[in-house]
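SEQUENCE-TO-STRUCTURE ENTRY
===========================
What this section holds: a protein sequence and its matching fold, both as plain text.
Tokens: labelled as protein backbone structure tokens, with as many entries as the chain has residues.
Question of interest: how does this chain fold, as expressed in backbone structure tokens?
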Amino acid sequence: MYHRSHRKLFPLLLAASVVALLTTGSRIGLADGAAGAVYVMTNQAAGNSIIVFRRDAAGMLTFAGSFASGGNGAGTGADPLGSQGALVLSEDERLLFAVNAGSNSISVLAVSGDQLKLLNSVTSGGVMPVSVAVRHDLVYVLNAGGTPNISGFQIHPETNQLIPLAGSTRNLPGGAGAAPAQVSFNPDGGVLVVTEKATNRIDTFGVNNQGLAQPGVSFPSNGSTPFGFAFGHDNVAIVSDAAGGPSGTSALSSYEVSDDGALELITPAVGDTQKAACWVVVPRNGRFAYTSNTGSGMISSYTISDGGRLALLNAVAASPGGAPIDMALANNSRFLYERNGNGMIGGFLVGSNGSLTPIGGASGVPAGAQGIAAR
């Protein structure tokens, strides 16, 4: 199994230079493929919205529109949410889920080509939602503020609106000081996994047949400051170790998540010589992992064995030209897109050998934006 990465135009985007197609990358003779889209959440305090970029078959992006999420973001800052998974697609890519950290709500939008339609926005069940996990008709949100918790929702089978799931809310074992970064289902869907940056812990929550999360169990992280993660083959979680940010301390670790939620270390933290590894993506073939080193402005690549063991492939697989803050894979993992701190989106072709080749991207993403999703 593989990890499934699941209208109101904001005033700041009205300037003529809001979104421009970059010319730094060139078309490099890519084979024809399916067209799609890349989505970025503005996370603005005065009104959150989703910017949509149309993606052509060669991976190039053009601005398609901006759509209100029905809530407010957390505002500006280098990394206001400190999370992975703030914006996620459903498994069939027909729905898009966004957190509204400033209004303590989450929204679901219907995807139709490069257009979005807000279906509904509901309270997140806590304070400052930062990450969303989707599995079939089940959605869980991670709330990082107050007493951090996870809270569940069901997707209505006819309207696709979100319905709060009674009895699903569970507090994180780490309590108020947990500083959680991400929630995600394991590939089998029976366990939810949460990283706690401040406590250096990784939590697991079993999910019963009614979709209700059970009390969490906490495990020590092998590396420090566990942040983002993605699943490779089976139930192997590839977790970034930001290590608090000092230079040369970035790493990835791998763990097996058992059916009962137990966490077993496979690969102790493998360093990439970079700074502040935060976001992680794994292509659908499960052979590679990529982490964005925000502090040093580089993307590193790793190989993943059939047993889930990690080995550093390239410490500098790509140099985006700014601090990479989030990443997403598109078109069956053929393209990787990263959102960075200078308002740009960088695009890369993913090679069969794990290489990343620049193909250009787009500009015009406002300061404080968080989350990226792609198809």
Q: What stands out?
A: Residues 210 and 284 are 28 Å apart (CA to CA). The chain has no helices and 29 strands. The domain at 11-15+34-374 is CATH 2.130.10.10 (Methylamine Dehydrogenase; Chain H). The longest strand covers residues 115-123.
